[in-house]
Diaminopimelate decarboxylase
Amino acid sequence: MKQTDLLQVASEFGSPIYVYDSEKMISQYKRLTDAFKKVKHLRLHYAVKALSNVSVLRLFNSLGSGLDTVSIQEVKLGLKAGVSPENIIFTPNGVSFTELEEAVQLGVQINIDNLMILEQFGHQYPKVPVCIRINPHVMAGGNTNISVGHIDSKFGISIHQLPHVLRIVENTKMTINGVHMHTGSDILDIEVFLHAAEILFETAKSFKNLEFLDFGSGFKVPYHENDIETDVEQLGQKLSKRFNQFCKDYGKDLTLAFEPGKFLVSEAGLFLAKVNVVKQTTSTVFAQIDSGFNHLIRPMLYGSKHEIINISHPRKQKRFYSVVGYICETDTFANNKRISEISEGDILAFKNAGAYCYSMASNYNSRFRPAEVLWHNNEAKLIRKHENFDDLLRNQVEVAI
């Protein structure tokens, strides 16, 4: 997308606003499928939690992608988008058994990460094939909040509890059709990932009716120029060779599955916000925008760095600014960063806003959540309206006081 296109979107639909480039999503999807083209059966399940707009789900469905879901609501969004139930994998954590029962009725692939739930499921639904999520006890990920495969993680069944799993399977006569792992997000060290993969392969030998192995995802994307990222091409070359050898030894061509979320949508997204005020203090120049961590919480939650560009005046002399929001708490997006000279009314574009931005937005301070636009075939398509005051009151029940 050109900066003129973004300015036109902000002018037509208002700010703040999220804009997603479908071309980038498609190219990232193709990049991953190309990296694993030597695997006979590959299945990508887009991680809905990254960006759950139905139009985005429909786009990935058109590419042949399945969906990775973590709530029954995400499952229903996927079905609403036209995704076939068999192409949706449901991997909840800590939910009530009734949610799993509903997933059974909807016909999606269920992935279980709890021994107690596995046993209960096996007794109640012995004929429904399920996947097992293991915890490989491998630490990976760019932040402790997104590292989920270590020994203290709440996710997955410990590989040391495999004898318990096998006992449950034997007692209930249930069928395990997949084994799954997810080590964390922002993975850089391919060797760590491959080490965890070996644990998955070793675990898989214990099950005779597998149809797929799911390696999760967590591939790191660049957040600024010359930033490091996961070399998915190298990973594809190494893991494909090892996976194909495993299938040969197993005696069956299994499906290799991944669950990319951020990798597919992060770079496709831009968040546009207008500068309300430029405020000079004794030590800092603040650019205060018409948004806050209610719309983009990742810098405050994870310490993520989103490159910021003044698309209204990109060629002006660069000056130092701290970009902050309008929330009644500290919400600093950038601290003392060089940005093209900013004036009131300028539009700032935050890069890498496709993943975990709108999906983590809130109405904190009773602010409205922004609109979403999909830039598709060189055209801006509104895929979610701006909220209004009626939306704030929609589910409130007024009582006489």
Remarks:
- Confidence is low (pLDDT under 50) at residues 141-150.
- The chain has two domains: 22-264, 269-353+370-387.
